[in-house]
């Protein structure tokens, strides 16, 4: 059972980032095609999503927590050792650190590995991860409000005689549309758009709720990277020295580097 779970996790690690990229590109192309223009708001949301995704990945790769062997052997904290040797990545790390089998390195203050972004979410890049979730939700919501009216017009013209509230609502659900396509042989493009519509709504709900949940956890001290104590974070600890200005542009990580807890955190980003 464990072997199957490991294989499934590794398969998800390989495929989920690719699925995220392909779906986001398809969603962007369809949205701009249906609008017959390049909407500035949608472009802004897309850029923010990709930039924050890039920073989550970049910060994850740039984190340095290795230590000289002599310092690690001598380091103690109230009788307990500050450092431990990781047999997987073959170096000393500082507590609390966790090894990620997918990133193949140890991380200090690690929250979880995000399969869809393809890297670990840490205390250092949690703010960018939350923003990536929010902008992913905003992008999906924008696309829903573009694809939805298009499908509405199509269903209005295709079968007016049967048009009522219940019939109209059922047309927007993928299982119903798929059955109609198999039995009646409707156009492929509308099955595709209904699928895109349903998936976009699901992603928007999940990413928005999950982003706000992580935001709440950071402000209430319930983060997973503080397992033995509750330590709340303020806006500047979460998003960096520019605070909520990172909602407009991810300044921390691109313009200004984060440096939390000196050498145990991010350097040269």
UniProtKB/TrEMBL annotation:
InterPro entries, per database record: Palmitoyltrfase_DHHC, PFA4/ZDH16/20/ERF2-like
Main location: membrane
Parts of the chain that traverse the membrane: 12-32, 38-56, 132-152, 164-184, 191-213
Annotated compartments: Membrane
Catalytic activity: L-cysteinyl-[protein] + hexadecanoyl-CoA = S-hexadecanoyl-L-cysteinyl-[protein] + CoA
Recorded GO CC terms: membrane
Keywords per UniProt: Acyltransferase, Membrane, Transferase, Transmembrane, Transmembrane helix
EC number per UniProt: 2.3.1.225
UniProt membrane topology term: Multi-pass membrane protein
Enzyme class: transferase
MF GO annotations: protein-cysteine S-palmitoyltransferase activity
KW Transmembrane helix (keyword) present: yes
Domain Palmitoyltransferase DHHC: 85-222
Domain notes: The DHHC domain is required for palmitoyltransferase activity.
Family the UniProt entry places it in: Belongs to the DHHC palmitoyltransferase family.
PANTHER family, per database record: PALMITOYLTRANSFERASE ZDHHC16 (PTHR12246)
Name of the protein in question: Palmitoyltransferase
UniProt organism field: Trichogramma kaykai
């Amino acid at each position: 059972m464990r072997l199957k779970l490991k294989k499934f996790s590794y398969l998800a690690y390989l495929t989920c980032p690719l699925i995220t990229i392909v779906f986001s590109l398809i969603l962007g192309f369809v949205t701009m095609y249906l609008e017959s223009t390049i909407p500035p708001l949608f472009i802004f949301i897309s850029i923010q999503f990709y930039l924050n995704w890039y920073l989550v990945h970049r910060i994850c790769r740039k984190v340095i927590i290795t230590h000289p062997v002599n310092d690690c052997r001598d380091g103690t904290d109230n009788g307990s050792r500050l450092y431990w040797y990781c047999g997987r990545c073959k170096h000393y790390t500082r507590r609390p650190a966790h090894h990620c089998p997918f990133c193949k390195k140890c991380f200090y203050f690690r929250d979880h590995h995000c399969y869809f972004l393809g890297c670990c979410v840490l205390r250092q890049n949690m703010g960018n991860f939350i923003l990536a979730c929010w902008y992913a939700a905003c992008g999906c919501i924008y696309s829903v409000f573009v694809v939805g009216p298009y499908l509405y017009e199509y269903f209005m013209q295709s079968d007016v005689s049967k048009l009522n509230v219940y019939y109209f609502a059922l047309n927007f659900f993928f299982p119903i549309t798929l059955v109609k396509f198999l039995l009646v042989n409707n156009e492929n493009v509308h099955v595709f758009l209904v699928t895109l519509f349903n998936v976009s709504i699901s992603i928007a709900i999940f990413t928005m709720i999950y982003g706000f949940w992580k935001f709440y956890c950071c402000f209430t001290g319930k983060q997973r990277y503080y397992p033995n104590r509750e330590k709340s974070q303020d806006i500047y600890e979460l998003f960096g020295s520019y605070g909520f200005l990172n909602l407009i542009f991810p300044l921390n990580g691109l313009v200004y580097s984060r440096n939390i807890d000196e050498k145990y955190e991010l350097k040269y980003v």
